[in-house]
Amino acid sequence: IGYARVSTTDQNTDVRVQQLTAAGCDKVFAEQVSGTSTKDRDQFAAALDYARDGDTLVVTRLDRLARSQADLHKLLSELAAQGVAFECTEQPELNTTGPMGKRLLGVLGAVAEFETGLRKERQAEGIAKAKAAGKYKGRASLAPEKVAQLKTLVADGVSISVAAREVGVSRV
What we know:
The protein is mainly alpha-helical and about 170 residues long. The protein has helices spanning about 15-20, 40-50, 70-80, 100-130, 145-155, 160-165, and strands at about 1-5, 30, 55-60, 85-90. Helix 1 (about 15-20) links the parallel strand 1 (about 1-5) and strand 2.
């Protein structure tokens, strides 16, 4: 079972889906949603629901599954409880079939979390510097018609992530 995720609606999952199919995945779940949280990842939830004892969940890289160590361990525990193994196509040494792979997953999960923290710090520093120079104005406001579309979709019971994708805006 493949899981392809890209972080923004500007990105495309096609390349990752092709990689997972080439790796032998019979079923691939794909979505455009941030990996900083496991919330609102509908296709990942669908992949977990689809998975059965003896299956293997495959991603292209570890950061496609989780960006924090807590999320990584939680997700791997959920998979293990279902009897589902885990593998990465671009990091074949990362799998849950042996103790070395499990150990390496923990180490690389910590590195991914560390990199996310550094990226956030650099972004905050850049924004602060731009604000001090009077160059940072922030993100442009959404057009009123897009806001109305979002409100209607959410009022109709559509999740915020799905509504944002349908309207073509970022969830953030």
